[in-house]
Prior knowledge:
This protein is α/β, with parallel strands linked by helices.
Amino acid sequence: xxxxxxxxxxxxxxxxxxxxxxxxxxxxxxxxxxxxxxxxxxxxxxxxxxxxxxxxxxxxxxxxxxxxxxxxxxxxxxxxxxxxxxxxxxxxxxxxxxxxxxxxxxxxxxxxxxxxxxxxxxxxxxxxxxxxxxxxxxxxxxxxxxxxxxxxxxxxxxxxxxxxxxxxxxxxxxxxxxxxxxxxxxxxxxxxxxxxxxxxxxxxxxxxxxxxxxxxxxxxxxxxxxxxxxxxxxxxxxxxxxxxxxxxxxxxxxxxxxxxxxxxxxxxxxx
Length: 271
């Protein structure tokens, strides 16, 4: 099979530049386009140069329809509005759409899922191998421990992150809720301030820290009577997410239409 031709959405951003580097460092894929927001000062710049590589002749453009004519997939770590704008074009062009965007609303996710009867979408709050293994373990532990063990999730990210809790924290919360057989939306405690009263039994708590240049730290604690268990993951460089997204795209190339996750990519969907 020939190399998979990939577009990087948000190519001028930190994650976009990491994705460009990951493609250049890996076999089986080539950069076919670099998408950036209309009006960006980076439009027309060389994607390779922006990523700290030699010039590659792929310049940043805001025209996804034009660049997707000769592409096989798109790697999309942008913002909700941009991702939703990309969904219809990706589906119409038959592109594999790898979505790592966080902060998506329920209606945004409904739009994404609406195209998966005819398009291939791989969506995850985190593309790393370690985090997805952590989610599988969290699900198992939550199933094994009853509600006498409280579940608390703490995440830390760099000062520039705009959404909270992180998509990874929510993914871990969903894994815990699935293990418990409950709905996360009905049991998530996402903000505590003032006189809150005692902790509600069965809640899954979230706390978000922001500062510095942290790529991503996540921990899930199970706090019981006289003991606690904490499972954690520490990301040291966002390149791990870029390589995970690339792995997802290559795995999805040629798959039947559907909505997939990194658990599917890594063979963890049965856990």
